[in-house]
Specification:
Blueprint (H helix, E strand, L loop, with lengths): L1 H24 L6 E7 L2 E10 L5 E8 L1 E7 L12 E8 L2 E10 L4 E5 L5 H6 L4 E6 L3 E6 L3 H11 L10
Antiparallel strand pairs: 1-2, 2-3, 3-4, 4-7, 5-6, 5-8, 6-7, 8-9
Length: about 170
């Protein structure tokens, strides 16, 4: 009987350790809107992490108009200043293709847009968004909380628009 109890206890400890290990590697990737430091001071930023290792990021800030930044994460490629690339954003059965410019200081691809841009509506949908480029591959991002976070940034821009909601 004692041997059975030890086996059950050992199995329970192993299962708990396995669960803790899995949780430690699964980075929380939900949308948030918070003040972040930029070279010009604090700026409200809506952001989310994604990709296979949760090291890619989408960020939306307001510099007079909404600016979307896409950090590819470690791609293994050296990005050259002054380049641009076409990216396809997909979510909810819709797709929007945009050309983003590399911001050399931060090594992010960026896009300046207005508050009615269809890409903002796509990013405020439910489910998951993928961002793909022939040259830079594909990353996926959860959309849970995106409508609220993006809405806060758009309100800071003075041009809040309604989204599909989460």
């Amino acid at each position: 009987m004692r041997e059975i109890m030890r086996s059950v206890l050992a199995a329970f400890i192993f299962a708990a350790a396995l669960q803790a290990t899995q949780s430690a590697y699964a980075a929380p990737c939900g949308w948030s809107a918070k003040m972040e430091e930029d070279e010009g001071g604090s700026v409200l930023t809506a952001s989310v992490c994604g990709g296979p290792k949760a090291d890619a990021h989408l960020m939306l800030t307001c510099f007079g108009k909404p600016v979307l930044s896409y950090d590819l994460g470690p791609t293994g490629q050296q990005l050259e200043p002054g380049i641009s690339a076409s990216f396809v954003f997909r979510a909810g059965g819709k797709a929007v293709t945009k050309t983003l410019e590399l911001e050399a200081m931060y090594n992010y691809f960026t896009l300046h847009m207005d508050s009615a841009d269809p890409l903002l509506a796509l990013l405020r949908a439910k489910g998951e968004a993928t961002v793909a480029s022939d040259k830079y591959g594909e990353n996926s991002f959860p959309l849970a909380g995106s409508s609220v976070a993006i809405g806060k940034v758009l309100a800071a821009c003075g041009k809040a628009s309604s989204g599909d909601g989460d």
